[in-house]
Design a protein that fits this description.
heterodimer; A: 530 residues; alpha+beta; six-stranded mixed sheet; four-stranded mixed sheet; 19 strands; 48% helix; B: 127 residues; mainly alpha; Arc Repressor Mutant, subunit A; two-stranded antiparallel sheet; 4 helices; 2 strands; 57% helix; elongated
Chain lengths: 530, 127
């Protein structure tokens, strides 16, 4: 037993099976949408319906009161499929443009155009909106209250995904008929093929471009969305930022320029006041040659300069609302990387010159004549402790070096040690060391170090510094002066030996004046007071 | 333009000609027209016919009147109009010309192209 419906075609009543009705209904819908936009549409449709009614009338008789699936099939065969209708260009082919009022649209999630769950694209298809806008709405509502998230999740759970082609057509409101489905599938296959072909570089290219467009579109949409007031506020904020950055940039740039152009060089603040530090002349002594130095300096200049320039540029950009020039950052970046590489290379080159140690030892005999107290006195070239500020020299105790400003000299500070001699001869052992790229180079440097000392009667004059000759590069030259005294020798130590005196167990720095010391097996000890 | 659409366009033009011709001989219902076409081995489904008929009517080439029918809803009885007749004659002429031209092209054997010979110096287009 089947259920029947009563329908009215062209003013005639028919009883029709439920399934036959579905088929007929869909057929008529297909025809209607086929002629959408056609000028005589209504007339044609009524002609068609009249003809259908005529055909069906013939099928009805006393013994057959109901229209069946076969009848509908025959009708369709006679009338033809909509795709077979030759139509004018004016009316669109079956269902390419879904109109907002077209056939039953059902809300589905769109798996083909989904970003997360296809909710936005599904909604977009249903309301004929660009899914982008739907997503913007969602994001806004999420930011404001989090409500949007809840809505999205609910929709995600509840709304089904349009999986079959028929469902996809329904989602877009396109009539579900064979031709449409075929077309849809055909499109999908075609698309798939294209996608596979384009997957490599083309896809990447397009993706990048689309991201750019997407970003630009969104930026513009964001701007439009903000509205006039917000716009003005944003501009004000940007201008402030811009000014700040600009000021900072200018300050840094001035410092930077003052370094490069060697004149004011670096000013160091001291207790006494400012002294100019001859940075450049020191650096000159480190680099192998002028070219190296210049290249390295240029590299550093660019390394520091480009960020500064970018900063200035950003400040200006913000203030005047200029567009970004992509190629500027690109070029700047490339130049900066080159500068980095160059600086690294030459920096490493310099570091390389310090990698191997070299040592040179000279031993001399001190012909001490009298057996009286040997006075050890410093031959002073270094200023007094308190005079450092006024001297204009810079003392770096860690590396035992002095930079003398007026003569642009590099002075090294030797390390003085007293040790017991193994025999009865007084000796002075000078151990010099230096660094170099190769061991023999280092040793050569060490050899070149000159240390002055003199024996004058009963006074041993020890220089408190050694000078690096002008042609010599600074290679961490060091000098250790070991005075070997036979046991029992009495010495007095000049206070000015302080800068060069190394650690001795029994010698206290503060308390040495007028004191005498005797060399013993364990080193210098205090002699009993005279 | 894909072949299907191309064919459809062509058929449509030809169909209009055929319809006008049929109706010019005697007034007819849509189903009569289908019948005559089928007899001439030009198979069309009825769905194709109705839009064409409506357009011809809208363009003034055909007119119709309603005829009651015992077997169902009233039917449209088509008749050709004066301008329809004029158009028909025009279309017949164009058709004949076109057919002749095409037949000629299809029938004539392919002739080899003339061998290329450069014109001697001094002759020709040097101005």
């Amino acid at each position: 037993m089947k259920k029947t419906l009563s329908i009215n075609i062209s003013g005639f009543v028919f009883h029709i099976d439920e399934d036959a009705y579905e088929k007929l209904h869909r057929y008529l819908d297909a025809i209607k949408s086929h002629f959408r936009g056609f000028e005589g549409k209504d007339e044609v449709i009524s002609d068609v319906e009249a003809r259908i009614a005529e055909i069906l009338q013939k099928k009805i008789s006393a013994s057959k009161e109901v229209i069946t699936m076969e009848d509908v099939g025959e009708v369709i065969a006679i009338m033809g499929q909509p795709s077979d209708f030759a139509v004018d260009d004016e009316s669109a082919a079956a269902g390419t443009e879904p109109s907002p009022y077209s056939l039953p649209k059902r809300l589905y999630r769109d798996p083909e155009r989904k970003v997360i769950g296809g909710v936005a694209s599904g909604l977009g298809a249903y309301f004929n909106l660009d899914p982008v806008w739907v997503r913007v709405i969602f994001i806004f509502s999420i930011l404001i209250s989090g409500f949007g998230l809840l809505v999205y999740l609910i929709l995600w759970l509840v709304v089904p995904e349009a999986r079959t082609t028929a469902e996809r057509l329904e989602m877009r409101g396109e009539p579900v008929n064979i031709s449409n489905i075929e077309k849809s599938i055909g499109d999908e296959v075609h698309q798939l093929k294209n996608k596979l072909n384009d997957l490599t570089s083309k896809a990447r290219h397009t993706y990048r471009k689309q991201r750019e467009e997407f970003k630009t579109n969104h930026r513009d949409q964001f701007r439009d969305g903000i509205g006039e007031v917000g716009h003005v506020m944003m501009r004000i904020i940007f201008i402030f930022l811009g000014i700040l950055i600009l000021i900072l940039g200018i300050a840094l740039t001035m410092a930077y320029l003052s370094i490069i152009f060697r004149f004011p060089v670096i000013m160091l603040m001291d207790q006494a006041g400012m002294h100019t530090f001859p940075l450049y002349s020191v650096i000159e002594r480190i680099f192998e040659n002028d070219a190296d130095l210049r290249t390295f300096a240029t590299g550093l200049m660019v390394l520091a300069g480009i960020p500064l320039l970018m900063m200035l540029w950003a400040g200006i950009r913000l203030i005047f609302n200029l567009p970004r020039a992509k190629f500027i950052s690109g070029i700047a970046g490339i130049i900066w990387v080159c500068a980095l590489i160059i600086s690294l290379i030459f920096g490493l080159k310099v570091a390389n010159s310090f990698q191997k140690p070299g040592e040179f030892t000279r031993e001399s005999v001190i012909k001490v004549i009298s057996s009286d107290t040997l006075h050890i006195v410093a031959n002073r070239s270094l200023p007094e402790d308190s005079d450092w500020e006024e001297s204009g020299d810079f003392y770096f105790p860690e590396i035992r070096m002095v930079v003398s400003n007026d003569q642009k000299l590099l002075l090294g500070i030797p390390l003085l040690k007293f040790k017991p001699s193994t025999d009865s001869i007084t000796r002075l052992i000078l151990i010099t060391s230096a660094k170099g790229a190769f061991t023999d180079e280092a040793t050569e440097s060490a050899e070149k170090i000159n240390y002055d000392w003199q024996l004058k009667n009963d006074t041993l004059l020890l220089s408190d510094s050694f000078v690096l000759p002008e042609e010599d590069k600074w290679r961490k030259q060091e000098a250790r002066v070991e005075v070997l005294l036979p046991e029992g020798t009495t010495v007095s130590l000049d206070e000015h030996l302080d800068p060069i005196l190394g650690y001795h167990k029994n010698i206290s720095r503060h308390d040495r004046i007028e004191k005498l010391y005797i060399m013993s097996k364990e080193g210098l000890v205090r002699a009993s007071e005279k | 333009m894909d072949m299907e659409r191309n064919n459809a366009q062509m058929r449509k033009g030809i169909l209009e000609l055929c319809i006008l011709s049929i109706v010019s001989r005697e007034d007819a219902y849509a189903s009569d027209i289908i019948e005559k076409l089928k007899q001439a081995q030009l198979i069309v489904v009825e769905g194709t016919l109705y839009p064409l008929l409506t357009r011809l009517k809208n363009d003034g080439l055909l007119s119709y009147r309603w005829e009651e029918s015992t077997q169902g809803p009233p039917r449209k009885y088509y008749r050709i109009s004066e301008s329809g007749q004029a158009d028909l004659d025009q279309m017949k002429l164009s058709w004949k010309e076109m057919v002749e031209a095409v037949e000629q092209l299809l029938a004539s054997p392919p002739s080899p192209p003339a061998p290329y010979s450069p014109s001697p110096a001094g002759e020709g287009a040097r101005g």
